[in-house]
Amino acid sequence: MASPAASEVYVIDASDRYHAVEALWREIALPSLDGNAVAVKANFNSDDPFPATTHPDMLEAILTRVRDAGARSIVLGERSGMGETALVLKNRGAAGIAARTGAEVAVLDSLPPEGWEAIPPDDLHWGRGFLVARLFREADAVIQTCCLKTHRFGGHVSLSLKNMVGTVAARNPGDGYDYMAELHSSPHQRRMVAEINRFVPCAVAVMDATEGFSTGGPERGNRIAPNVILASTDRVALDAAGIALLRHYGSTPEVMRGRIFGMDTIARAVELGIGVRSAADLRLVALDSESKNLVLDMRRILDESA
Questions:
Q1: Where is the DUF362 domain (predicted)?
Q2: HEC string for 167-231
Q3: 189-224 b/e (C-beta count within 10 Å ≥ 16 → b)
Q4: In this model, does residue 21 exceed pLDDT 60?
């Protein structure tokens, strides 16, 4: 059901998130995390329950897996775009889960100026460049988990590439410049999202598609229930697979039309060398019989949109 390719996206039934994460971790065969400083980026953009934000079980499964892999330190870093970050993390249970699993929490809004690294605007669509948290730039490994959502504020989709917007400063702590206002008002918003990922590494990304939003988003929308979890070491491949999954259920006009690899965020990420260059370079792998038929349809959608 799959041909040789440059990057794999693994798909597994989501009935048991802990089992699914363990199986995905084993299949991906990540480099050892033993003794490493690991930064984790989940999806806590707003104070809304899953699938708007990371499910508590998913966060606990990932933090536990990283801890058991021997990480020297684990830091959950977040900046919420639609709420007060510290309160969102508390209300969504993330702060408590981090404490139970031995992880620290970094509220990025509270970082001092030296906690940010300035990315210059050279060859980017950002007028002044942007600031990215050093936590993610300097970690030995970055792990992220995202949701399956559309984005009605110009992003079109909110998947693994979009999730990294939360590693960027909302405002410059020196002069107050509003990076997020620039992002959300720019006709290049989706390309700017891809550009962030050029400067934020990611060892593995896990997409919790137990449920998702096929329209609306990022905090509310039409709910769908694919009941699968996807994972890859390649964010472009993962997002392309996520878009195919949204198309399977029927989504917004912006998501449904055209080539998946022609969509702004995917195309710009390809230009920047962040992931695979085409659907032909993407191998979908079903890890159980429950997800096999869905994977076959996702493969068909990817091939038809090539």
A1: 38-243
A2: HECCECCCCCCEHHHHHHHCCCHHHHHHHHHCCCCCCEEEEEEEEEEEEECCCCEEEECCCEEEE
A3: bbbbbbbbbbbbebbbbbbbbbbbbbbbbbbebeeb
A4: yes
Query: Residue 114 burial by CB count (10 A; 0-12/13-18/19+): exposed, middle or buried?
Result: exposed
Q: Which residues contact 187 (CB under 8 A, 6 or more apart)?
A: none
User: pLDDT averaged over the chain?
Assistant: 96
Look at residue 6 in the predicted model and tell me its pLDDT.
Answer: 84
Note the pLDDT tens digit of each residue in 226-257: 999 999 999 999 999 999 999 999 999 999 99
pLDDT at res. 269: 97
Q: Does position 270 have pLDDT exceeding 80, yes or no?
A: yes
Q: Which band of pLDDT confidence, cut at 50, 70 and 90, is reported for residue 291?
A: very high
Specify the residue for token string 């999730």: 163
- Of all helices (H) and strands (E), which one includes residue 239? helix 235-249
Q: Which CATH class is domain 7-304?
A: alpha beta
